[in-house]
Amino acid sequence: MRVMMIVKASAESEAGVMPTTEMIETMGAYNNQLIAAGVLLDGAGLHPSSKGARLHYRDGKPVVTDGPFTETRELIAGYWILEVKDWDEALDWLSKAPRPDFGTEDAEGLIELRRFFEPEDFADVAPPEIVEQERAWRDEQLQKAPKA
After folding, report:
1. In the prediction, which pLDDT does 99 show?
2. What's the pTM value of the predicted model, to 2 decimals?
3. What span, in angstroms and rounded, lies between the C-alpha atoms of 117 and 1?
């Protein structure tokens, strides 16, 4: 089962405040635990939305809007992608994640856990050959992915 732990943006992360040395060391130790356990597929911090863009559609046509974006609760500041045996293991890793507080006790830190759809989740709505095609594509991409 693949899951994503999503670090929600905060006023600090959106302002471009960098984490403290202590926070980076704590995050590094956590990442090393994930790597040692063989569950980390990917993870990264993201630049603030002021350095990003969004695509939306107006009258059926694509429109790109440059950041920043005002609603921090709708933004992410970073993520981890894990491959775990089940939801309980995912919750266990979530509970061990360091606080994304940028060294400020009153900063709000929120990490959301979401499961990825897997090809077999579509078995009831897609033809078997499409499900198998998606499974094969995913396996091929995982083979090409650099190992953490």
Report:
1. 80
2. 0.82
3. 9
Contacts of 29 (CB under 8 A, 6+ apart): none
Torsion of CA 47, 53, 54, 58, to 10 degrees: 170
Give CA angle at 91 (89, 95), nearest 5°. 120
Outline where DSSP puts E strands in the chain: 2-8, 40-45, 53-58, 61-66, 76-83, 111-115
Beta bridge partner(s), residue 113:
5
* CA geometry: angle 135, 137, 140, nearest 5 deg: 110
**Mean residue pLDDT across the chain:** 88
pLDDT at residue 13 greater than cutoff 90: no
Token duo for residue 85: 């045996």
> Cα–Cα distance between 42 and 8 in angstroms, integer?
17
- In the numeric block, the tokens 């933004």 are attached to 75
**Has domain 2-116 been given CATH number 3.30.70.1060?**
yes
Each domain of the chain, given as residue ranges in start order, spans 2-116, 118-148
